[in-house]
Design the sequence.
């Protein structure tokens, strides 16, 4: 028995409290706990839902939570110093895709006039933001604000919503060091609402649409209050979504714990995607428990089992709506981090121009594929994972891709060139001065 | 009290003796009637009187006014609720009626036992793992950990009760002595009065962020005795609930009969004895009125604080269910609403019982 090598990764801290937000993409945590993957690694984990992303991040930084389900932008934003300044790392990317943009029913009825229909009489997807632009222009002409919501300034949702709007010629607004509302020069006014409150806020008429993870788009369909117009899969095919974050301090003090937790999470991801999503119904049942997501199983199943319901009754196949393991989904690619950083720069959250080298360095400070591979190696050695499932020789950068809704090519190694190729947004030496964009 | 009637064989009891015994019983019933009323067991009094052989008709009338009418009102409320609730269509489906709420109460009850079973399985797995560790390495450090699963509805009730009592107790320890000092000294009273007036109306939602930040900064320990969330909730309860006790105590102390104070002066009682022997006993009724109000306020404040800060307890249960947004969420929240109401009522009754027991006062 080669138990000497094993002794090296004994968890230093075994009783853990992990935070999460009630969203289906917290599934790896629920699965690792319910199926005993955490316990297999000697970890005793309590999972606790948090009120909103801000509370969650603060609690990880103060140590009330040992780790948490996070928006990919949160560890990056915290490390860069947008909002909160703290060093947070991630050894594990939780999933790909899983978000959608929903608009209120009244907005949809206006939009639908401008959306072409296919031969089958159904609307042609993906739906571009040009259709929404007509509605926004009408609001503007009437002097009414067009409010939309996302879940957090550093959220994937914020960047996806902005990306989609900008690709249709709608300006989503800039951030500046003195005005962090993110609404400078915006055609639409984006604000923050916690995910589970999205449908209620839409219903109350405070917002006209939102970008959020599941099940809160499907919930709007079931409630009959809104229509999801596009999924993030159609905005950027297989985009990285949540990550699992630890404070850097915690990782330094408890490297064994972080490794053990990463191992358990990798196994959970693998289980979720195994045999062509064969386990998804079981996962839905677990997620429907009140202590996890808690929404009705049929609502969660709508998106978790490879379909997505747009307008009521218009249910389409989106087999990759939620990806938890395929396509190396759990590997924390530097290029994913760099994309988030480019968007922070694009919208002014990073106020000044940065060199390509800075993007690379910052990504490497936060994303830790080294820890991920160490955990994967241990799993392969224990026979709990297949060697072929991990990108052992990756340099951390995915190949350049143009699978975006606007067809622009993204190369993680050339972030500044990428920023220059986007029409709306800060680029080069531009920065905000008051409510104006100035060069240098 | 050994009387002849008790020793005498039953057959020989005379009518007179029976009448005397009945009267004794009736006196006893009259004595406890007040207490039964306080405990909400008022309906038992007329029944007992009937059992002792009093004429049935007036007792039935009494039973009707004391118990029948409230029961009728509740029945009418339930029927009205049952009929109107389905008419309100929310996005989570129709508003649940009494039947659905009752059913969800059953679900929560069953859920509690399911969770306990899971806890047992968790502990067994732990024991096995520990045994395996020890078998491999006899010097290995093993320990049993508390269950890491979710708290059930009943766990949340207990957490809330512990928190409210902790906050209330702490508030009482501050408010009663301070109130006594205020009542005895006009100067202190005038000095403190403006602060009381300003802080009294502050909502828990305003205190909470401050308390959270201060506790987080000061209460740092690797292995704290109490959970931080517990301390935060309890202090928020204290800050909001101590005012009625403080004000009532001060008023109670200030309005003691001057003769009593003068007697103390004549006897040259030391300060401490004066407070304990004269001031406290004669202001107790008002102190208890204050405590009752404080406990009521504290219970209300606690639920709000738990909802806002996501601290464990009934408030968090309500908020989690609201966020879940499942088809059973509204019914579960209503179960919580009734639970909160009933517990609040019981807490008030307990304080009232204490008040009556300690002060022999008829006023409530």
Sequence:
């Amino acid at each position: 028995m080669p138990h000497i090598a094993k002794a090296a990764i004994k968890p230093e801290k075994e009783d853990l409290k992990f935070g999460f937000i009630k969203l289906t993409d917290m599934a790896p945590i629920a699965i690792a706990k319910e199926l005993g993957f955490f316990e297999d690694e000697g970890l005793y984990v309590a999972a606790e839902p948090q009120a909103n992303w801000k509370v969650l991040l603060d609690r990880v930084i103060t140590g009330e939570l040992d780790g948490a389900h996070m928006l990919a932008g949160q560890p990056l934003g915290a490390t860069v110093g947008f909002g909160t300044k703290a060093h947070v790392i991630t050894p594990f990317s939780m999933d790909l895709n899983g978000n959608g943009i929903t608009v209120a029913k009244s907005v949809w009825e206006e939009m639908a006039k401008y959306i072409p229909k296919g031969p089958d009489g159904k609307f042609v997807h993906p739906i571009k933001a040009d259709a929404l632009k007509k509605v926004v222009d009408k609001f503007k002409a009437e002097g009414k604000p067009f409010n939309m919501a996302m879940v957090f300034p550093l959220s994937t949702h914020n960047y996806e919503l902005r990306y989609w709007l900008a690709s249709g010629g709608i300006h989503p607004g800039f951030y500046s060091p003195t005005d962090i509302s993110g609404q400078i020069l915006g055609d639409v006014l984006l604000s923050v609402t916690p995910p589970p409150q999205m449908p209620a806020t839409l219903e109350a008429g405070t917002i006209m649409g939102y970008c959020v993870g599941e099940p809160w788009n499907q919930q709007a369909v079931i409630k009959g209050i809104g229509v999801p117009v596009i999924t993030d899969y159609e905005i950027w095919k297989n985009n990285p979504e949540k990550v699992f974050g630890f404070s850097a301090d915690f990782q330094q003090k408890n490297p064994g714990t972080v490794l053990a937790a990463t191992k358990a999470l990798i196994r959970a991801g693998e289980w979720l995607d195994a045999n062509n999503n064969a386990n998804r119904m079981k996962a839905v049942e677990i997620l429907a428990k009140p202590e996890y997501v808690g929404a009705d199983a049929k609502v969660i199943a709508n998106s978790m089992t490879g379909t997505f319901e747009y307008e009521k009754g218009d249910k389409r196949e989106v087999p990759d709506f939620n990806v938890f393991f395929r396509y190396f989904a759990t590997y924390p690619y530097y290029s994913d981090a760099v994309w988030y950083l480019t968007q922070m720069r694009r919208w002014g959250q990073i106020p000044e121009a940065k060199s390509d080298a800075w993007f690379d360095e910052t990504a490497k400070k936060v994303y830790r594929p080294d820890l991920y591979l160490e955990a994967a190696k241990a799993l392969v050695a224990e026979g709990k994972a297949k060697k072929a499932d991990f990108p052992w020789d990756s340099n951390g950068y995915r190949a350049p891709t143009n699978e975006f809704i606007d067809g622009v090519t993204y190369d993680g190694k050339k972030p500044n060139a990428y920023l220059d190729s986007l029409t709306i947004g800060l680029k080069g030496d531009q920065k905000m001065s008051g409510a104006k964009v100035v060069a240098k | 009290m050994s009387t002849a009637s008790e020793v005498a064989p039953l057959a020989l009891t005379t009518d007179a003796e029976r009448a005397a015994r009945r009267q004794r019983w009736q006196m006893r019933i009259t004595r406890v009637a007040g207490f039964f009323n306080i405990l909400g067991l008022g309906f038992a009094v007329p029944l007992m009187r009937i059992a002792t052989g009093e004429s049935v008709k007036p007792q039935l009338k009494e039973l009707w006014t004391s118990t029948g009418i409230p029961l009728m009102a509740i029945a009418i409320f339930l029927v009205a609720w049952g009929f109107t609730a389905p008419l309100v269509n929310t996005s989570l489906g129709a508003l649940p009626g009494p039947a659905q709420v009752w059913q969800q109460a059953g679900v929560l009850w069953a859920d509690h036992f399911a969770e306990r079973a899971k806890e047992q399985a968790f502990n067994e797995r732990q024991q096995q793992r520990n045994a395996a560790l020890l078998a491999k390495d006899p010097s290995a450090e093993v320990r049993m950990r508390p269950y890491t699963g979710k708290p059930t509805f009943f766990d949340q009730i207990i957490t809330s009760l512990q928190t409210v009592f902790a906050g209330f107790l702490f508030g009482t320890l501050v408010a009663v002595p301070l109130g006594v000092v205020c009542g005895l000294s006009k100067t202190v009273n005038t000095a403190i009065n403006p602060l009381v007036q300003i802080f009294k109306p502050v909502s828990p939602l305003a205190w909470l962020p401050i308390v959270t930040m201060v506790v987080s900064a000061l209460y740092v320990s690797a292995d704290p005795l109490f959970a931080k969330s517990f301390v935060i909730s309890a202090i928020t309860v204290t800050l909001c609930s101590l005012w009625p006790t403080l004000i009532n105590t001060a008023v109670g102390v200030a309005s003691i009969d001057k003769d009593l104070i003068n007697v103390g002066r004549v006897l040259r009682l030391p300060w401490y004895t004066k407070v304990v022997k004269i001031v406290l006993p004669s202001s107790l009724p008002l102190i208890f009125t204050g405590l009752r109000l404080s406990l009521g306020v504290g219970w209300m404040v606690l639920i709000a604080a738990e909802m806002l800060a996501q601290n464990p307890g009934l408030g968090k249960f309500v908020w989690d269910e609201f966020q879940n947004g499942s088809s059973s969420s509204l019914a579960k929240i209503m179960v919580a609403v009734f639970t909160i109401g009933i517990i609040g009522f019981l807490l008030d009754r307990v304080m009232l019982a204490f008040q009556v027991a300690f002060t022999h006062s008829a006023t409530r």
Observations:
- The CA atoms of residues 120 and 437 of chain A lie 46 Å apart.
